[in-house]
Automatic annotation (TrEMBL):
SMART domains for the chain: Iso_dh (SM01329)
Gene3D superfamilies for this protein: Isopropylmalate Dehydrogenase (3.40.718.10)
Keyword flag Oxidoreductase: yes
Domain Isopropylmalate dehydrogenase-like span(s) in chain numbering: 4-328
SUPFAM superfamilies: Isocitrate/Isopropylmalate dehydrogenase-like (SSF53659)
InterPro entries linked to this entry: IsoCit/isopropylmalate_DH_CS, IsoPropMal-DH-like_dom
PANTHER family: DECARBOXYLATING DEHYDROGENASES-ISOCITRATE, ISOPROPYLMALATE, TARTRATE (PTHR11835), ISOCITRATE DEHYDROGENASE [NAD] SUBUNIT ALPHA, MITOCHONDRIAL (PTHR11835:SF34)
Protein name according to UniProt: NAD-dependent isocitrate dehydrogenase
Keyword flag Endoplasmic reticulum: no
Pfam family, one: Iso_dh
Annotated source species: Pseudomonas xionganensis
Length: 332
């Protein structure tokens, strides 16, 4: 069966890691058909839109994509909204999978293997921000039962696939009893009904952050809301060797978008130092969870493992992107 992949390199190091990851995918899956689309800050400056309709159409048609990274200004720019948030909302990519595991040589410890499942379409990133009065800005945090149900159903499936020993719901229901309460209660009901009551656990987000630092090995599947998942996944990726190795997959109904956790890294863009493994491993997630090609995903991960075991400590200086890509290609 022929697979189509829509590439959205974006800005900064997205333009460097996406071609590297595609080279690896083409070696694994020579029949893959690759098409390219535009999005991001430079796209906004050229076309007046950070996500042109043509990009949404191509991605929908392909049913699968790889997103590099985009730059976003930190102030208000009329008409601009982060491209990745727009893609997630417009395409119904309402779940985000962010695995973190120990890798040889590059991980500070050897016993971490956890998966953060993050709600991806609402929460504090609902996009509803306004001025209430001069000097008072409001952001609305949206939590819906339907989105929590979808999240918990996906959590139950993932828990089965990884034989989860523990499922931790992360929230802040003590100070946000309506929104976080709805999240906790809905997820808890769905997971208990699916037979995961014994493994179910919950943590307030602040203490969860401390425990992810103190005993990351105690976590297995973490289920949480949009903002909490964003922050905790950056924290947790320290255990997997840092930002350059942190993959993610945005999932919707019949559509998925692979996305390294990192941003456009303007501090190293153009220097050849971007690590392509986050993007490469994101394609591994696409192979495993969307295209249902677990053998290819396992081959890819084995190549990454062997590369890091043998060359993980080498300082590639200015040639990281090229040297890492070659190292993976050689091992496939
Ligand atoms: P960042 O992830 O771009 O960079 C953080 C640090 O990690 C930098 O020192 C960078 O050099 C390093 N780093 C990131 N990816 C790396 C890689 N593959 N290899 C080696 N080092 C890597 O986050 P930052 O600096 O907070 O944001 C920069 C821009 O990216 C901003 O405009 C921000 O809005 C955007 N951003 C976009 C995201 C996306 O498109 N999904 C996600 C996060 C930030
Ligand atoms: Mg983030």
């Amino acid at each position: 069966m022929s697979r189509r992949l829509c590439l959205i390199p974006g800005d900064g190091i997205g333009l460097e890691v996406v071609p590297a990851a595609v080279e690896v995918l083409e070696k694994l899956l020579p029949a893959v058909q690759v098409l390219e689309a535009d999005a991001g800050w430079e796209c906004f400056r050229r076309q007046g839109s950070a996500v042109p309709e043509a990009t949404l159409e191509l991605l929908t048609e392909c049913g699968a994509g790889l997103f590099g990274a985009v730059s976003s200004p930190s102030g208000v720019v009329p008409g601009y909204r982060s491209a990745i948030l727009t893609l997630r909302q417009r395409l119904g990519l309402s779940l985000n999978l962010r695995p973190v595991r120990s890798w040889p040589q590059v991980s500070p410890r050897a016993d971490v293997d956890l998966l953060i499942l993050r709600e991806n379409s609402e929460g504090l990133y609902s996009g509803r921000e306004h001025w209430e009065a001069e000097g008072v800005a409001i952001a609305e945090r949206v939590i819906s039962r339907a989105a929590c149900q979808r999240l918990a159903e996906q959590a139950a499936q993932l828990a089965g696939e990884r034989s989860a020993r523990r499922i931790t719901l992360v929230h802040k229901a003590n100070v946000l009893p309506l929104t976080c309460g709805l999240f906790r209660d809905t997820c808890s009901q769905v997971l208990t009904a699916a037979g995961w009551g014994e493994q179910l656990d919950e943590r307030l987000v602040d203490i969860a952050a401390l425990q992810l630092v103190q005993q990351p090995e105690a976590f297995d599947l973490i289920v949480t809301t949009n903002l909490f998942g964003d922050i905790l996944s950056d924290l947790a990726c320290h255990w997997g060797g840092g930002m350059g190795l942190a993959p993610s997959l945005n999932l919707g109904a019949g559509i998925a978008l692979a996305e390294p956790v990192h941003g456009s890294a303007p501090d190293i863009a153009g220097s050849g130092r971007a690590n392509p493994l986050a993007a490469i491993l994101s394609l591994g997630l696409l192979l495993r969870y969307h295209w249902q090609l677990p053998e290819l995903a396992a081959r890819l991960e084995a190549a990454v493992y062997s590369f890091l075991a043998e060359e993980g400590q080498v300082d590639f200086a200015t040639q990281t992107t090229r040297r890492v890509t070659q190292g993976i290609l050689q091992r496939l």
